[in-house]
Amino acid sequence: MDFPDDFIERSIRMHKKEDSLSLEKSKRSTYHEYTEENIWNEMILDDIYSTSKAILDYIINCNSLEDKPYFGKKIISIDIETTTGIPKAFEGFVNILGASILDLRDHAPANAELIVYQSFNMLRKKEKAFYLLNLAQKYIDNADVIIVFNKYFDIKILETIINNFKLDYKFPEEIVDMMGAFKSLAALESHLSRQVNFQRIHSEKGQYQEYYKSFKGKGKKGTGKQIDPIGVYNLMDTLTPLYAFLLMDDFPE
Hints:
- Helix content is 32%, strand content 23%.
- The protein has 253 residues and is of the alpha/beta class.
- Helix 1 runs parallel beside helix 7 (230-247) and helix 5 crosses helix 7.
């Protein structure tokens, strides 16, 4: 598939190397305001790095990993950003798709890797939203477990896109909705803060309206669109449910 016009795609593949992360970044852009040089804002990636390192530390050092129900599985945590008009959102107006991928099938715990992946529908057009799934499919295919917060929003909207555009993708049977254990993502992250000293600095909850306004840009033409901090916000909304899911047996709510 040719890379669509007015889209951005980026990912970071992370391995644990001694006491730090080994990073392999990938990026593509056909949106005129972003080039490969400015797709990642290094100044605000600390949240992603610290949470990813904590996840990998846990997987590598967990003595009971083989007893976990997710051992030997490919786990994908998904989050989408839509238009702020909820009825429109359910029609399939999706602007950003983020995913965190932890594959425990092919990698021994000591060699575990974590991938954060994201694509942006920069013109925010519903008729182009299917590209988000097409682009992500190389990462999310063959998942054993999907983690999501509120499947009646994210999964339902993505299934609307799949059905409307007759896409060749089907979610796995095991979809874990973390909303079953926590009333909000803020509550989930408060739980992580109490148990493992998690903190979120550059992508605070409660700032979504401000972040989305910045992503829309200025005026009718949407000039000066900023893909961050909403991009980091979106990726963190995949990492924290994944982290909480991995820890569920260790620290019940």
